[in-house]
Automatic annotation (TrEMBL):
Pfam families: Sacchrp_dh_C, Sacchrp_dh_NADP. InterPro entries: NAD(P)-bd_dom_sf, Sacchrp_dh-like_C, Sacchrp_dh_NADP-bd. Residues 5-136 form the Saccharopine dehydrogenase NADP binding domain. SUPFAM superfamilies: NAD(P)-binding Rossmann-fold domains. Residues 140-387 form the Saccharopine dehydrogenase-like C-terminal domain. This is Saccharopine dehydrogenase. Coiled coil: none annotated. It comes from the Bacteria.
């Protein structure tokens, strides 16, 4: 059917590339392009492309001109941006300049501030509409599948959704004293920021990791979950009518939090540049260099993830609860595509979003979050491509 350009060559990109090759009638050719060519080549070497042709390229996606040049030579239908959030706008600009659809898994971040806001990308709506192009934002797991789960609940199970609790649990163990499951810089920026949730039209801030509950998760068991701000809260608060409250919870072990506290206390998680022997460095970026590469955790990580949405609302005038979630096994992911479940649960939905745009099912000019499209083909594809979901109609609620 066509070609896809994958930008980035990290843990997520590797899964996207593997998964695209499982759907050769849609992805006839893929190009894996990133700043470090050797990483693209390493992914290509791991993949048995089958019928899908796989090529690689070097690109610095901070430079719009370089992305334009690459798109013009490769001529894809879509760019799947799984580099870092800092490159979202330069890549969107390049897509507009060349007439190519766009997809990402994380919202744009200005390098100097940790904001987690869709504002900059939503401002591109008119430009994509006028160009007749689709930009699909946040097509990973969270954001991504959590939005699709919510849209599915809205379509099939509720007249009105009032409360959503998204719970992201990782019961995996990689055996290192401390490592992050995806890009450490983005991960630590997210966790050390204030918590925030949306209630009755207002954002309520909480000190970092101050709201804690215990929750018993299917196939994982009881875990401590902590309230965090997460970017899908912003779009779901806008797109789900009748919503009264939405919160996001993530599991962290005591060991992880102790390490993080020490790193924070000594200033290693700061994004303020410091001068070290005449060179400006950002402590958090330096820390990223010395922590294990998330892409290397695959062979070591054992256990499961469980991510889903606990939803309360009404159907036919009666109160209703609904929990929809996916369980993913780290070792099974590794056996299939050579990556752990965090990369897998992000890369599979990125491939699915791109597939639905290429097939025309989710093609609509403008800039959209996943919950704005028909969830059904996405939910079917989750079952088919490795992320089957489960339902529970009487879940334990979070107070
Ligand atoms: P990694 O750090 O493993 O990989 C990022 C890749 O992007 C690297 O190959 C890196 O290249 C490349 N890159 C960075 N800067 C540039 C640039 N200027 N030009 C070209 N390539 C560049 O990250 P992950 O694979 O773990 O994560 C990828 C994305 O997925 C991130 O945006 C992350 O926030 C998002 N994500 C989303 C989730 C979701 O559920 N929605 C969950 C997990 C992640 P180099 O190696 O040269 O530095």
């Amino acid at each position: 059917m066509g070609k896809a350009l994958i930008i980035g060559a990290g843990g997520v990109a590797s899964v996207v590339a593997h998964k695209c090759c499982q759907v050769p009638d849609v992805f006839e050719e893929i190009c894996i392009a990133s700043r470090t060519l050797s990483k693209c080549e390493a992914i290509k070497d791991k993949i048995d492309g089958g019928k899908t042709k796989v090529t690689v390229a070097q690109v610095d996606a901070d430079k719009t001109e370089e992305v334009i040049e690459l798109i013009n030579s490769f001529k894809p239908e879509i760019v799947i941006n799984v580099a870092l959030p800092y490159q979202d706008l330069t890549i969107m600009d390049a897509c507009l300049a060349t007439g190519v659809h766009y997809l990402d898994t994380a919202n744009y971040e200005p390098p100097e501030t940790a904001k987690f806001e869709y504002k900059w990308q939503w401002e591109y709506k008119q430009k994509f509409e006028e160009a007749g192009l689709t930009a699909l934002l946040g097509s990973g797991f969270d954001p991504g599948v959590t939005g699709v789960f919510t849209a599915y609940a809205q379509k099939h199970h509720f007249d009105e959704i009032n409360y959503i609790d998204i719970v992201d649990a990782n019961g995996g163990d990689h055996g290192y004293p401390f490592a992050t499951n995806f890009n450490p810089e983005i991960n630590i920026r997210e966790i050390t920021a204030n918590g925030r949730y949306w209630e009755n039209g207002e954002w309520i801030e909480t000190p970092p990791l101050s709201e804690k509950r215990e929750y018993n998760l299917d196939q994982i068991g009881p875990k401590n979950i902590y309230l965090l701000y997460h970017e899908e809260l912003e779009s779901l608060a806008v797109n789900i009518k009748g919503l009264k409250r939405i919160r996001f919870w993530m599991t962290f072990s005591d060991n992880y939090l102790n390490h993080l506290k020490v790193l924070e206390n000594v200033g290693m998680t700061s994004i303020e540049p410091i001068n070290y022997e005449g060179k400006e460095i950002i402590p958090l970026q330096f820390l990223k260099e010395i922590l294990p590469d998330p892409a290397s955790l695959g062979p070591r990580t054992k256990g499961k993830t469980n991510i889903g949405c606990i939803i309360q609302g009404t159907k036919d005038g009666k109160p209703k609860t609904y929990y929809v979630y996916n369980i993913c096994d780290h070792q099974e992911c590794y056996r299939e595509v050579g990556s752990q479940a965090i990369s897998y649960t992000t890369g599979v939905p990125a491939m699915i979003g791109a597939m639905l745009i290429m097939k025309g099912q989710w093609k609509r000019p403008g800039v959209y979050n996943v919950e704005e499209f028909d969830p059904d083909p996405f939910m079917d594809a989750l079952n088919k491509y490795g992320l089957p979901w489960q339902e529970n109609f009487s879940p334990t609620l979070i107070d």
